[in-house]
Design brief:
two-stranded antiparallel sheet, nine-stranded antiparallel sheet, 5 helices, globular, 24% helix, alpha+beta, 38% strand, single chain
Length: 247
Amino acid sequence: MNSTDEIFTNPPLHEVAFEVRFPHLFYLNQRIGEFQLEIMDDFPKSSQIFEQAFAIDEKGVTVKDNENPIPSWHFENESGKTKITVHSNKLNIISNEYKSYNHPSEKKFRDIIEQIVTLFIKQVPIKNFTRLGIRYIDYCPLEKLENEYFKNFYTPLFDIDRYKLEDILENRMLFRVRKNDYQLLLQSAIREIDDSYKYIIDFDGYAINVEASNFINVTDDLKRLIKKEFLSNITENFKEYMRRTNE
């Protein structure tokens, strides 16, 4: 089995997000009701929000009267942990409850992506997405802010022997790289969250100019790319941690 094919039972995933962008669709508000009916069983909570443009200058904040408020539509599942947002030029799905993209024994984030985007294209027959991306934000445990502990579980992105973790007051790394036909934005940081330190690894893989009919294949490619990059940034010890069960 290829190492990237392994399914881990205890991943450090905090949030996963999917987004497609497209040119502004001025008739979208005429179709959003049909889309809502299609997803209502799984996403019963809904709201509409109007955003107003403001100008800020030395006189203060003023509303731009010549620009109409811009609507966006928001849908949530019963738990409120998976949300869909539709704007005139993008659709995104954000979840804090899915731990698997395509695990046969778990709820699959892939299924939600495929369902929602297929239903959206049915109501709004877009031919191409200007951008398609999937993002994984992992909160990895960091029980000790010490170099040796860190290297036991993670592959440092900078020279921590020169800049020791114990001495760092603020830490944030960002890389944007090309990966064949795709692009990857990698961000990492060490933060104190709920009285404990976390090593945050944030992967945003995306493609430009994607045929709408090919969206799920591109998403699969991006997920494989992100997993490969994630595994390259952790050690075998952390893989063992992710293989544990919560029982």
